[in-house]
Every structure is written in C-alpha cells, then in structure tokens.
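Z., the sequence and structure:
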Amino acid sequence: GPAPPPPPLQYSLLLQHLVGDKRQPRVWDPAALGGIPCPPKSEEQKMVERVMESCPFKAALACVGGAAPARTEQAAVGWFGGFVLGGAFGIFTAGIDTNVGFDPKDPYRTPTAKEVLKDMGQRGISYAKNFAIVGAMFSCTECVVESYRGKSDWKNSVISGCITGGAIGFRAGLKAGVIGCGGFAAFSAAVDYYLR
C-alpha cells in the first residue's frame, strides 16, 4: 500500500530548537568562516595577559606614558597623560609664554636661548610630575572600582573621576573637593563616551 503521510510540522517544537530552551550553543570557529585559525594560548601568553590586566601595571603605564585605565585595548590611545604627555605639554607652554626671561627692570631685553631652554625644562618636568600623579591616581582608582563592581562600563570612569578630582581638590577645602569631583567626573564621562 501507499506510504503513510509524514506527520505535520509542529512550528512550536521547531522554535524551541531555534530560540527556545532546547537551542544548542554554537561554538564559533573562525576557520569555518574563512578566518584565520587561532591556536590555543600558551601559559606564557596567559601570564603576560594577567600581568597587563593587573592594577599595578595599568597604574605604571598611566604614570609613564598615559594609559586608558582598566581597558588594555585602549591603553595605547592614552587617556589622561602621564610623564611623557605632561612633559610635552610643559615644554609647549613654556615655548609660547611671552614672560620667559622677563626682567621688570629692563622690559625690552630679549631672553637668551639658555634662559628659554632652562624654563622649558623646568616647566616640562613640573607638568610631567603632575600629569603622572593624576594619571596614576585615576588608573588605580578605576581599576579598583572595576574590580569591586565586577563590570566594565562607563560608571567606572565616572566614579573614579569623582574620587580622583575630589581627592585633588580636597587639598584646597571641601568646596573645591566637591567641584573637583563633579568636574573630573563629567570630564571622565565625556572622554569615556568618546572612546566607546
């Protein structure tokens, strides 16, 4: 006799396998889509990644060259500065300052190149120290906040910006601390919004 007709297709069972509870997670294989296959990471690579993701490394990177705190992929972008950026900024401001070598007794005297270079060096070192301290403070604070919260989002930079700005401003009093907290938090949020 004729073969029995196939059972009707039940869409509800099909949907459970596509988007429901019975859906199997798919392992993404870059080689299947024409990508470059990646070998598993060695223990040395994992150790280097752990070191680069640690708070002390991020603080040192922010202190020396300016790092995007708590996010290694943005560390090369440079968030706030550091010794190198601060030094460059100090040298630039000293180079365009018209009061370098100014003598009130002889206002028409032209400063010598030695005086200008000396002032550029002093100002560069001063700015470099300040930028390095602020960069390290922000980086450490954001790393600690991110570790405590267990999330990597925009709130981390706003909280750490408030803590860093408040700590810097608090030396001049409570009002300056509150203004520093708000200003630095707003600036951190704007930078984080731009980078993300």
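The mean pLDDT is 76. Residues 77-98+110-195 form one domain.

Let me know what you think.
H.
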